[in-house]
Amino acid sequence: MLKLAFRNIFRNRSRTALTLAAIITGVTAIIMSGGFVEDTFVQLRESTIHSRLGHLQVFRQGYLEYGQRDPARYLIDQPEQVIAALRPIPHVKEVMARLNFSGLANNGQADLPILGEGVEPGKEALLGTATTQVAGRALQDSDAYGVAIGEGVATALQVKPGSYLTLMINTPEGALNTLEFQVVGVFRTFSKDYDDRAIRIPLAAAQELLFTPSVHSLVVLLDDTDATDKVVGTVKGLLGKQGYEVKPWHELADFYSKTVALYKRQFGALQFIILVMLVLSVASTINMAVFERTGEFGTLLAIGLRRREIFKLVLVENLILGCLGGLLGVLVGVILAGIVSGIGIPMPPPPGSNIGYIAYIRLVPWVLIAAAVIGTLAALAAAVLPGRRASRLPVVEALRHNI
Q1: DSSP strand E in 234-315: where?
Q2: Where does 171-299 show beta strands of DSSP type E?
Q3: pLDDT tens, 236-284?
Q4: Cβ–Cβ under 8 Å, residues 99 and 216
């Protein structure tokens, strides 16, 4: 049966080529769309992490829920001890402290409500690889009273590098404190809403403004994003009983979760359409091939081949075509993905962002395997009805096609 199936496949090369072309096109489309989707998710994930969130953050228990009302109650009083406990954990690359505050920024002409962060500039430079410097330079450890501002803040207050801003902040005790800072740079992150209100000053200056040696959060940068959940489990076991709360980046990035859910549905619908088109195109070519071979099937039935063997022959032929088409489709898809990735696909900024990006076709092993399997199964499924019809042909009617 297998030998006969091979002979039938290569006997009519044009018909075989047509069927293979349909399978290869469908498999290639699945690889291209799946690789594009995967690259979109990976770039969105890394941009979210390396804009400002880090891979995970450590807070006092209750800070995320109640910290906006009374942030002074949820300060980490001895951050050095917690940092020392986090550093030896495998995959931990850096731990940075942050002190959050809100207040008013004044340029001498207007006030703007701001959301500020006291940061450690040297460490933040390792994290903020997805942050774009629009003007000036990044904040440095030597900038005792320097300030980096979001693009929206710079636009609203009409300030630029070299300008001065006065920050007015309420201390935890309720007193009003002010300090003057010089703008060193304007930045743009992945989130436009954040850039419209964000400023960053050195951690020591923020602690001076708030009259506190404490911090609100510890941001952990890892050397491998895939290790996030493992490290989160380790940190929770280490700090959970000491009154600390540990959150991975994907729980802090509500925007990312909603965007991925939206894209998954959209791309899932697209891939379903590709699958339906693949099955229909293969079924069309197989139907045509079976109709053209009606006389041949009549002859096989006349010489004693059983009907179930005719059905099996059609299935085996298309299974071979499916396997061959799946492998060739993977090869074509990999080559085409390499060509497209070498050129790049310019993409507009995602919703809520100011930053566009260059998309690529990412080769993911499970996508390649799934595409090959889908191509094979599509060819097999498309052969079921034509095979049943061929096996049920009346012998006399079928033999007339040989005349």
Answers
A1: 244-248
A2: 176-188, 198-202, 217-222, 244-248
A3: 988 878 889 999 998 888 778 887 888 888 888 887 887 888 788 777 7
A4: yes
